[in-house]
């Protein structure tokens, strides 16, 4: 049996387009510029399908388990377990968890007006509907893809945040990133030139496939000597 839930958020006014961030760093933290995610997503209903659903009245949380799929406009979230809450203003918050031994929690969001997508994986993914920030924790990976399949940027870190309001993503190092090729557990990144998107306008009705889950380690990188603050 499949459970379905649709929650409609409070209306949020459109924000003015901000200038793109220009600097990134790979030394425990990283930031890179992005265009807006799909701006219409914030006003779309939240739809969830799962094998089972329960409601905790004391904690005011809906709990979905078993092959959970959540959509909100172009935002897609897949996990073994997703917990959803909603505040009095109507903003929604979702936390996705993976099942040990199973695939990592997965998210995707389309970039506004472009045939590009942001794909992310982590043991836990937290989506804040008010701030429009997704936080991927433990074994986190974030990719920027042209046409849904061609990898342009790829980031590995212990904690990665994808902030659509400020148009940046950030990554932090951690113990879960330690391996023979990365003994200090540092952030690893491969970034394409900003003018080499390889993305064309998407043809009407064209479909794209999610990128495969990350495998293996990235080659060694030379870290930046300066650490940028993406919120400045």
From TrEMBL:
Residues 173-184, 223-232 have a biased composition (Polar residues). Residues 47-166 form the Organic solvent tolerance-like N-terminal domain. It is found in: Periplasm. Gene3D superfamilies: Lipopolysaccharide (LPS) transport protein A like domain. It comes from the Bacteria. Residues 173-232 are annotated as: Disordered. GO terms for biological process: Gram-negative-bacterium-type cell outer membrane assembly; lipopolysaccharide transport. GO terms for molecular function: glycolipid transfer activity; lipopolysaccharide binding. Residues 1-31 form the signal peptide. Residues 196-216 have a biased composition (Low complexity). It holds the Pfam family LptD_N. One of its GO terms (cellular component) is outer membrane-bounded periplasmic space. Keywords: Periplasm, Signal, Transport. Component of the lipopolysaccharide transport and assembly complex. Involved in the assembly of lipopolysaccharide (LPS). Required for the translocation of LPS from the inner membrane to the outer membrane. Belongs to the LptA family. This is Lipopolysaccharide export system protein LptA. It comes from Pandoraea commovens. The lineage of its organism: Bacteria, Pseudomonadati, Pseudomonadota, Betaproteobacteria, Burkholderiales.
